[in-house]
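for the record, two folds in this file. i put them one after another cuz i was lazy. first one right below, seq on top, structure tokens after. the second one comes after a little note so u can tell where it starts
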Amino acid sequence: MKLLHTADLHIGKSIYEFNMLEDQKHILQEILQIAREEQVDAFLLAGDIYDRSVPSTEAVQLLEWFLLEALAIAPVFMIAGNHDSAERLSFGASLLEKSRLYIAGGREVKEIILEDSFGKVAFHLLPFVKPAVVEAGSSEEAVAKQLEQLKGGPERADRHVLLTHFFVCAQGKEPELSDSEVHSFVGGLEQVDVSLFAGYDYVALGHIHKPQCMKRGQTYYAGSPLCYSFSEAGTGKGVNVIELQEHGEVGVCRKVLHPLRQMRTVKGSLAELISQGNALETGREDFIQAILTDREELIDPIGSLRSVYPNTMQIVLEKRLAEAGTLLFHGAESKKKTMEELFGSFYESLAGEPLDAERLAVVQEVAGEVERL
């Protein structure tokens, strides 16, 4: 039996106000093509299907299209992640099972059994749940309590596959994170040790965006199919294709995905980057983080770069990195600040000190004249 494991689709996500739906549809089409070529027997979607608990209409439509295409190939097993609304994602789940779409959300734990030439395979769907919901003191305790619901059934199948969405560690060793994941750890309460999954032939994890193995041959984060931060650039996005043979014989093959646009970082002076961009034949549509080495004042650097790289997401001034280590310009800034605030941020990033009263008065005067035009 062949399975395709992916997770953290985050359908509907925007990065610095860049809507990712077009890029997401492109990568979902490639996932479907891999499934057809590999002739998979099931899709494993391990949580964070949407980026928000209340997804946009466009995000819902994109997921509906993907599921219809996927179900024409093989059954789909899908669980809710921490970004999903369990109730919304699993609405109509009982009806959808007739179409071979199996969804688990919230406290719900499901077991579905398929069969191949080697015998029966039990798929256990264990969605993300906050510990308090199941009266547990930690995520590990919550997972243990949920798995208890599935005990007593090993004899019903020869092999077992688990889908779940937690912060899984290996004897205290945490998975590698990226900037697109925001975690708040309180005394390790979110950690779930991989030892809880003993007895499973394959554990399909979601939650962490970088693909990695937590237990060789058994427990894997497939990672997100797209980069959602520049820290993920070059991590080799893809999906896992798993081949289950007899009990204990599991093959895991990584299939690389090719995004519509890469996320990459460029570095140099503004003039150098514009010159390099003009000379490019491909790659100008990529999502760009620009590290500018200029020491002098710059006027509208993001606008200038977007004339060459239209999808410039971030500009970082190198001279300020050592002091603040923070992003100084991005696409959302202009929509959230007044002209005086924007110029104040710009001046402070260059001069290393805030605007004084005299300079602020000049800025206010100019801003007033512009507004009257």
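(here's the note) second protein begins now
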Amino acid sequence: MDKDERNRIEGQLYAVGIWLPVLGIGVYMLGRFLPSVLTEMFRVPCIFHAVTGLYCPGCGGTRAVEMLFQGEVVLSFFYHPVVLYGVGIYLWFMISHTIEYLSRHRLRIGMKYRNLYLYLALMIVIINIAVKDIALTAFHTDILKLLDDAHALV
């Protein structure tokens, strides 16, 4: 990938990143004022889990986002660590590029796009699902249910 193509991709990612908080605020407001609508939209049971009894790579992701919005960072991590990883990468990318754009590219500190970030996310997802499914099958321990129960106590 040449420099111009990388700059174009980073510009597009930055533009999308600008709109993500707007979308997030919209979803938050929808959940705040119409909780039943949000619940119906995002609380769809996992078909993979219902059929196989195992967790899919995304199981726990919605609850991780919910916990993050509630300020429960540790619980969010345990539900699905890729959510915190994604937030960290997003913040690093957006802050560094904003500083670079505001300095009119005099401060070249913008995070550069690399496939490595995607591979790390994939590894986190694979490790997460392996831990949850091994705990479920080998030790008969449902980690997500334990987390749900622990959160209900708080």
